[in-house]
């Protein structure tokens, strides 16, 4: 998709293919926050000693995380040990990036399939309706695969801050995966080992304010393909989750310094469907822009995807083991097909309207 103009106004909204079908439009306001998504403190996560009949702090935290993964596949964490200064620097510099003149951002233009950089709306091919966002993305792990020519080099300090951020988040994600491995009755490293050599990709989302937010989405409904995602969001609000296939939605309450953690498809398959892959989207609003920074922890492309444990009496939810790359491609082509089929059906319906006999029109 060629870069659309970075004019985020009414004309652009109506002329450039952002307007969603009615069934996809936001159902819940961006700032009507729900407390259904658990907020879990990680304070004492390494404390494994229980006392007579009292669970260790680690065991308590594990129980909460596991329950959240079984119910929603999404939760928030606080007291995670990541320096608040690092989080505010990361957010400040990311915001500054998006305020740069268009030609600065377009130095990293990733249209035409470049791996990493800046783009308007989406880096995925063939989207039928556009997302109301700008994004910058870079691949941060494995380190040997880093291509710094695709990482933004402005504002000045950003590159060093993003490096530190990536390293710290890799550590935090692995800690959570340890908990989930233990919950499956496996050794601590089981999930990270299943990723072989874990990839990490960061996507910084900037959602400009929008004159008619009720018609569009900042980011359409999806599940993340990878193992686990850690999302840092500002205080505006707009992340929404559903666990009934999009019938009802809740808006995740922004909490200063917290990460939203959500499981992706890979995590779902490894657990044989026990842990949900969170179904989510981002909505925008007319009052202020919003920023979110998603850190995706993914398996290596050739890692084999298969349930690590199938409980007695259960069936595997996968017919056969496939590589993560194959899994990802299948997902993307299925999503595209669905979107195209929907578009086609809409067009057909409109054509039918056009050829309706005159008496029908006035009926
Ligand atoms: O901006 C958000 O809150 C959601 C971002 C997200 O889901 C993604 O980047 O995959
Ligand atoms: Fe996502």
Short description:
The chain is an alpha+beta fold. It is built from 9 helices and 15 strands.
Structural class: alpha+beta
Biggest sheet: strand arrangement: 2-3-11-8-13-6-5-4
Beta content comes to 15-25%
The number of helices is 9
The largest pleated sheet is described as: 8 strands, mixed
Please, could you describe this protein's structure?
Mean pLDDT is about 90; it is low at about 360-363. It is globular and about 70 Å long. The chain contains nine helices and 15 strands. Helix 2 (about 55-70) packs across helix 5 (about 160-185) and helix 3 packs across helix 5 (about 160-185). With about 375 residues, the protein is α+β, with helices and mostly antiparallel strands. The strands form three sheets. The protein has an eight-stranded mixed beta sheet. Strands 1-10-9-12-7 form a five-stranded mixed beta sheet, with no helix packed on it.
Annotation keywords:
363 residues; alpha+beta; five-stranded mixed beta sheet; 15 strands; 19% strand; globular; binds 2-oxoglutaric acid; binds fe (ii) ion
Blueprint of the fold:
Elements: H1 10-15, E1 33-34, E2 39-41, H2 57-71, E3 74-78, H3 84-99, H4 102-105, E4 117-120, E5 134-141, H5 158-183, H6 190-194, E6 199-207, E7 219-222, E8 228-233, E9 239-242, E10 250-252, E11 259-263, H7 265-270, E12 279-282, E13 290-298, E14 304-305, E15 322-323, H8 324-354, H9 358-362
The structure holds 2-oxoglutaric acid and fe (ii) ion.
